Amino acid sequence: MSTSATQESPLEPFSQPVRKWFESSFEAPTPAQAQGWPAIASGEHTLICAPTGSGKTLAAFLWGIDRLAREPESLGTGVKIVYVSPLKALSYDIERNLRAPLQGIKAPISVGLRTGDTPQAERRKMRREPPDILITTPESLYLMISSQAREILTGVEAVIVDEIHAVAPSKRGSHLALTLERLEQLGAPGREAEEAANDAIQRIGLSATQRPLERIGQFLVGSRRRCEIVDAAEPKELDLEIVVPVEDMVELDADTSKRRDGADTGKTPHQDKNQPKHSPERIDPGPIEASLDPATNTRSIWPAIYPRLLELIREHNSTILFVNARRSAERIAKRLAVR
């Protein structure tokens, strides 16, 4: 059942096209969206902390998209929203994910991507035809401000900094903080004194693993500004179980007397005089890799682990195994594949 736009609904500030699209696409706003939209709509600098997959990126974008859709005369005049991601691959994902709301709202809002891989021809075109929403990286934003391309950034209204925890404690973050201040000054000469003092560019920070929130918020906005913190983080629910596939961790011989296919041989490894000392595919394994190969370590627990791993894999749609090295992963994959 969709959420109606009542007075108590987080969707109340949005226009009808945006509310209609959201209600047809989602069952209800997530906590990050419900708590974040009032702060963003008020114009406050906002820091949203929420788990991955909680919709915090849409929470940051949707109000700006709605504002641009209400002012079609401002479209095409310059960049209005800047999305900064420290991960270049994430920038491509955001560009793709923005298509759904823009198509659903049917707003002629353009999106441009500027990274170190952007060809020169596209960069020149971006200067002639600036996008309404710019997706970029900290380094590319710095280069734009330092070049003639800064002309398209004089009308920026909001900056979204995603994965802010990845840059906050580093020199890269210090450089980004300076870049944001330079971006702030680009539009200052064209603003009234009162508007310039109120910081016309709204800053929105996003992350799932940022702590402490107050320090991250101060990094986002600087020492002279106030930041509204939206903490929609939820404690992780862990389903943790310790499984030991043998009865006795000290005397492994009786529990590992099985063939590689998991069947019981009726013998302990030391009783099989014809058992090869080394696996045919063995190529100078180290101590960790050797422990994974029952042919090179007769007291290894791994012959008992393989059947249990196979059971768990077959019981679930997706399984992730963590090991110490790539060779370990390859050996485990080979053992499981022959079963």
Walk me through what this model shows.
By secondary structure, the chain is α/β, with parallel strands linked by helices. The chain has two domains: 216 residues, P-loop containing nucleotide triphosphate hydrolases (Rossmann fold, 3-Layer(aba) Sandwich), CATH 3.40.50; 99 residues, no CATH class. It is built from twelve helices and seven strands. Strands 3-4-2-5-6-1-7 form a seven-stranded parallel beta sheet, with helices on both faces. Helix 2 packs across helix 3 and helix 3 crosses helix 4. It is elongated and about 75 Å long. The two termini are 46 Å apart.
* Helix count from the secondary structure assignment: 12
Q: How many domains?
A: 2
Overall CATH architecture of the largest domain: 3-Layer(aba) Sandwich
Order of helices and strands: HHEHEHEHEHEHHEHEHHH
* Approximate shape: elongated
N→C terminal distance: 46 Å
What's the short story on this structure?
With 339 residues, this protein is α/β, with parallel strands linked by helices. It is built from 12 helices and 7 strands. Strands 3-4-2-5-6-1-7 form a 7-stranded parallel β-sheet, with helices on both faces.
Features:
single chain; 339 residues; alpha/beta; Rossmann fold; 2 domains; seven-stranded parallel β-sheet; 12 helices; disordered N terminus
